[in-house]
């Protein structure tokens, strides 16, 4: 049985995540307030950010950088800047 959340990113009711995808307080906030759809959007952006910035996820600075971008994207609607990436026009 899927759960529904009011997704703060999409600003609508949507299918919620099956389990907490991220640790800690932020992870709980994401689980409670972010939909599968918005999380999938973030995953694509995250991959691009990791590749573009050649992030090493073993390094705390890289994780902190990504976490800040993730929070801004999911909760403040801020698109991360990705060099050479042009979002598809709607």
Describe the structure.
This protein is mainly α and 90 residues long. The chain has one domain: YggX-like (Orthogonal Bundle), CATH 1.10.3880. Helices cover 49% and strands 9% of the residues. The protein has 3 helices and 2 strands; from the N terminus they run ββααα. The protein has a two-stranded antiparallel sheet. A hairpin with a 4-residue loop joins β1 and β2. The radius of gyration is 13 Å and the shape is globular. The model has no long low-confidence stretch (mean pLDDT 92).
Summarize the structure.
Pfam families: Iron_traffic (PF04362). 49% of the residues lie in helices and 9% in strands. With 90 residues, it is mostly helical.
Element layout with pairings:
Blueprint: E1 4-7, E2 12-15, H1 24-33, H2 36-52, H3 60-76
Antiparallel strand pairs: 1-2
Question: What are the defining features of this structure?
Answer:
90 residues, mainly alpha, YggX-like, two-stranded antiparallel ribbon, 3 helices, 2 strands, globular, Probable Fe(2+)-trafficking protein
Query: How big is the Rg?
Result: 13 Å
Distance between the termini: 32 Å
Q: Shape, please? A: globular
Sequence of secondary-structure elements: EEHHH
Strand content: 5-15%
CATH class term: Mainly Alpha
Side-by-side strand order of the widest sheet: 1-2
Tally of helical segments: 3
Family: Belongs to the Fe(2+)-trafficking protein family.
Function: Could be a mediator in iron transactions between iron acquisition and iron-requiring processes, such as synthesis and/or repair of Fe-S clusters in biosynthetic enzymes. Necessary to maintain high levels of aconitase under oxidative stress.
GO biological process, one term: cellular response to oxidative stress
GO molecular function: iron ion binding
């Amino acid at each position: 049985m899927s759960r529904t959340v009011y997704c703060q990113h999409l600003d609508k009711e949507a299918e919620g995540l099956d389990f907490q995808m991220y640790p800690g307080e932020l992870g709980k906030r994401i689980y409670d307030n972010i939909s599968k759809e918005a999380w999938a959007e973030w995953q694509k952006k995250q991959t691009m950010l990791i590749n573009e910035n050649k992030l090493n996820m073993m390094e705390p600075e890289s994780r902190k950088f990504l976490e800040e971008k993730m929070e801004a994207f999911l909760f403040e609607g801020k698109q991360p800047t990705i060099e050479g990436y042009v979002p598809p026009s709607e």
